[in-house]
Amino acid sequence: MVTVATLTATNNSQEFIDMNRFSSFQKLIRVTANVLRCIHYCRNGRKPAGIELTIQEMTEAETEYIGTCQMTSYPEEIQCLTDNKKVSPLV
């Protein structure tokens, strides 16, 4: 059973795998890359080029978590940037 948390990024609702269920960052990224690959396959109807994950797929998975961490850690700053307001300096 996989626990999934729903996070809202801009106007799209995206689902991510629970980070706390993995013992290493590398496993988390590989599983996430496979899930994202499946999502792309289902949406586009195109099969992946090969069985092995590409560097681009791994980078995309890592970027998703960086964005998630930023949204969790800096919600006020992101809202200010979205509203074109001045952001207070980080100290």
Q: What would you say this structure looks like, in words?
A:
- The protein is of the alpha+beta class and about 90 residues long.
- It has one domain (about 5-80).
- The chain contains three helices and two strands, in the order ββααα.
- The chain has helices at about 25-45, 55-75, 75-80; strands at about 5-10, 10-15.
- Strands 1-2 form a two-stranded antiparallel ribbon.
- β1 (about 5-10) and β2 form a beta hairpin.
- The longest helix has 20 residues, at about 25-45.
- The radius of gyration is 16 Å and the shape is elongated.
- It starts with a strand and ends in a 9-residue tail after the last helix.
- Mean pLDDT is about 80; it is low at about 1-15.
